[in-house]
Design goal:
The protein is mainly alpha-helical. It has one domain. It is 75% helix and 0% strand.
Length: 201
């Protein structure tokens, strides 16, 4: 391929553009791995099932375990299945603000899906060129990114999870509709912050 030949010439000349391209490949590979991790975490429902007992969610929320699981499963399916456009919890009441919030969360995960596909294509091409050029610097840069970035986030959440949790939501939901009133959106009672802390790690 002509592009491969161009990259090979850049490599032999120790070209700055080649290093930049390799860094971009590493960035997209990192984004793919992070996006995939987020997707797999959502799909791994047993973590939440464990936390129902571990965090005593049944007692704290006042709902039965069966009801909690049914509504949680619905939320996850709603977030992950693009065709599910209408938000209708099986048995818990919810407000218009709550419905809007979950629609916004769904849009974020749709963006994650798009990022997952794009980063997969670009990083696959990057890995292919690395094999052809016998230059695996992309893996070293990706490893560094995947260590530094999560470590930084973990440190922030460990220092003060509550503050970090609030900042995260203010960034992604600036309209403030993530602050649920339990009287109108009791689903917040089955989604304690401690669960998100466990999901993060």
């Amino acid at each position: 391929m002509q592009l491969l030949n161009i990259l090979h010439k850049m490599k032999t000349r120790n070209n700055k553009k080649y290093k930049l391209i390799q860094s971009l490949f590493a960035l997209f590979l990192s984004l793919f791995i992070i996006s995939l991790a987020v997707k797999l975490t959502l799909l791994f429902k047993p973590l939440y099932y464990f936390d129902i007992d571990y965090l005593n969610i049944e007692k704290l929320s006042g709902f039965t375990k069966e009801e909690i699981i049914k509504n949680y499963n619905y939320v996850i399916n709603y977030l992950l299945i693009p065709k599910m456009q209408e938000f209708t919890l099986p048995s818990l009441p919810y407000s218009e603000v709550g419905e809007i919030h979950f629609k916004e969360v769904k849009n974020i995960f749709i963006s994650f899906d798009i990022l997952l596909i794009i980063s997969l294509i670009i990083s696959t091409f990057g890995l292919w060129t690395s094999v052809k050029l016998k230059d695996f610097n992309i893996l070293r840069k990706t490893s560094i990114t995947l260590i530094v970035l999560p470590l930084g986030l973990m440190t922030a959440f460990l220092i003060n999870f509550d503050v970090s949790f609030v900042i995260f939501h203010k960034i992604f939901f600036p309209n403030g509709n993530w602050q649920f009133d339990p009287d109108f959106d009791p689903i917040i009672n089955i989604l304690p912050q401690e669960f998100f802390f466990h999901a993060q790690y």
